Amino acid sequence: MKNLLKFIGIALLTFTFAFTNHPQKTIVIDVSHGGDDNGATFEDFTEKEVVFDIAQRVIELNKNSDIKIVLTRNSDDFLSLEERAKMINSFQPDFVISLHANLHPNSNKKGTEIYISENNKEIEKSKQLALNISNVFENQNPVIKNANFQLLRNVEFPIALLELGFLSNKDDREKLTSSKGQIELAESILKLLERK
User: Fold this and answer.
1) How far apart are CA 160 and CA 96, in angstroms?
2) Angle 14-19-21 (CA atoms, 0-180°, nearest 5)?
3) Rounded CA gap, 13 and 110, in Å?
4) Are 64 and 196 a contacting pair, CB within 8 Å?
5) How far apart are CA 48 and CA 44, in angstroms?
């Protein structure tokens, strides 16, 4: 009987360690713009709607219970940059990705752009995050840039701003606004979130 109880005790301990060995990651996706702030606009397409739709698809497609994804907005609401930073910091995330869609007068300009700030408290980890994004989105010729954007400065955790493509470019626009393209982008973001 004692041996049986000892076995059960060891089994329970092993079971507990098996499920506590991989703590859940908390990742914030900043869904940019919202409310009266449309962000970039091209014809009938707005940045605020595009990034919202893609963020929702990320949530829907995430089947990994080790990853907790928090969105800065779940509806068409406006939050100031100060409010966004305060909210994000309160979640104490492992890292943050701020989703955006780009616009340029030259319709030939396309691809992904990634921004980090040298003034971010966790700049080394932010650089690594940017490199991870670059690797996942390598087929879109990603470019990593330094920018002193307010959100990148004020968030106290690793953060990168991800411009998913240009609404002003026909190919990028198709990817950003079609169901198929949005699912592909959401799947790429999930691959990024699952990286160690």
Assistant:
1) 7
2) 90
3) 53
4) no
5) 12
pLDDT classification of 140: cutoffs 50, 70, 90: confident
For the domain made up of 23-193, give the CATH fold: Aminopeptidase (3.40.630)
Neighbours of 11 (CB within 10 A): 10
pLDDT digits (tens, 9 = 90+) for 172-191: 999 999 999 999 999 999 99
Tokens of 35: 């409310």
Would you state the structure tokens that stand for residue 182, as one six-digit string?
A: 């949005």
CA angle centred on 129, ends 63 and 160, rounded to 5°: 95
pTM score, whole prediction: 0.87
Could you tell me the two tokens for 156?
Answer: 């106290």
Say if CB 43 and CB 2 are below 8 A apart.
no
Side chain identity at residue 165, one-letter code: G
Side chain identity, residue 78: F
Contacts of 98 (CB under 8 A, 6+ apart): 29, 30, 32, 151, 152, 159, 160, 161, 162
